User: What shape does this take?
Amino acid sequence: MILFTSNKLTRLLRIAANKPSAFRTGTVLKSGAVCCVQPNRNQGSVDRTSLQGSVDRTSLQGSVDRTSLQGSVDRTSLQGSVDRTSLQGSVDRTSLQDRQKQQMARGLPKHKPVSGVEHVIVVASGKGGVGKSTTAVNLALGLLANDPSRSVGLLDADVYGPSVHKLMNLQGHPELSDKNLMIPLRNYGVPCMSMGFLVEDTSPIVWRGLMVMSAVERLLRQVDWGSLDYLVVDMPPGTGDVQLSITQNIPIAGAVIVSTPQDIALLDARRGAEMFKKVNVPVLGLVQNMSVFQCPKCLHQTHIFGSDGARQLADTLGVELLGDIPLHLNIRETSDRGQPVVVSSPDSPEAEAYRKLASAVIRRLQEVNM
Assistant: This one.
């Protein structure tokens, strides 16, 4: 088989960045790009030849003359029913809103399922450093541990800072199948795809937005996932282009928001939850990570980042607190070794916390999809 390397990906992304993509929001003119529109001052109208491109002629139904610029708007120039009287105050708001909704519906990309995937679960956080990737990895393994008959995949969508390959103890380049699809690397029974397979750990990923969008699209759709019951997606922190593009282009069963109890983390977690609500993605609930630290010697418990902050935020947002994950040395050490605590210490209280989280996620999925 052929290996899919970072050089090949970069070449493909540079080509894709110059082409229309389903991951770009907004409306794209089917007939070509408009360079500029130059008004013909001698005639007082828009000269079609000055468009320097192939623009659909229906968009230029009629000419705008000087009198129309002074107050009278021709109906055909607006392709609607706005006349002079409507411009003077009597706007039919209902019909205008209906037309706007129709135009917005045409402009937004359509949801297209990921081939072979039944449910997509995104794990997000408002800011970095709250344990989102560790939670995503152990959630995926917890789903599999609770029900081995289910098939679970893991996608690292954090293009700029991939870490799933490290947490899952995977390295190497994905091979290409006969259908020219990348074959995900597998460990602990979970197929994984990450940008970390395609670049060196020390190599910075210096890409503009369009290349990042194309990379995420390929990591989702140009991968032979097989048949998956659940695909857990480790999202990048924040509420940027990647989050918006993924939520607007694939059907998402639900979002899990990870936060520490610290006030500054909760502010960003709330922004993340509100973003998912705006794009009509069900928020399954919040995970309070690093909720408590227990001294390994005296067993005294200390709430280093505060207590019950995520629980209070969940109550405010009207969502559920899915689980509390402790700040424990075992979680950190097993993660650094690439042996997540759910598989390396299955009988530990920490692993039990992740399995309970997985059970809560499945229960919430069933509730929101009833």
